[in-house]
Prior knowledge:
- By secondary structure, this protein is of the alpha+beta class.
- The chain is built from three helices and seven strands.
- It has one domain (2-130): Thiol Ester Dehydrase, Chain A, CATH 3.10.129.10.
Amino acid sequence: MFTTSKPLRFGDCDPSGIAYFPSYLDILVGVLEDFFTSLGFPWRAMNEVRRMSVPTVRLDLTFRSPGFQGDRLDFALAVRAIGRSSLDLEHTVSRGDTVLWTARHRIVATSLDTNTSLAWPDDIRAALTHHLETAHAHHPAT
Ligand SMILES: CC(C)(COP(=O)(O)OP(=O)(O)OC[C@H]1O[C@@H](n2cnc3c(N)ncnc32)[C@H](O)[C@@H]1OP(=O)(O)O)[C@@H](O)C(=O)NCCC(=O)NCCSC(=O)c1ccc(O)cc1
């Protein structure tokens, strides 16, 4: 499990002070980037040196409770399945004990030269496997 916290800022909210959900996606991408950096694979090096990227192909969000300007959002990212080129993640976003939203998320390793999928390089796969949580793991095809 990778965990981190992000502030819900003025600019992330509508005039009533409630979270504007497209901003949640922007913040989520930052969390994903931080996760890869924590594994030792910052995106700039992945892009420039390895010529690879990790676009999102599926994202299923469930909003359970509103977030408000000034909240501290606690993100928990779990690796649920690792395919040939795909990676299934599960996000839980909370304010204190209250779950605000959850997401099932699939990204795919791709080549920036061909814009097609790429098998996870062995070193990245090994680092991802270290985070795999088998208790609720599922086959990536499901
Ligand atoms: C990712 C793709 C190149 C994959 O296409 P292909 O090369 O033909 O691959 P395949 O169809 O063989 O599928 C490859 C894998 O992806 C999986 N896949 C592909 N599409 C899907 C969808 N829609 N749902 C679920 N799984 C999918 C598939 O199951 C394969 O999994 P493995 O068995 O584990 O390998 C293509 O689907 C694509 O370009 N999709 C658009 C992606 C996109 O534009 N997303 C929008 C957000 S951009 C983004 O998030 C981002 C960009 C850049 C960054 O640096 C970071 C983030």
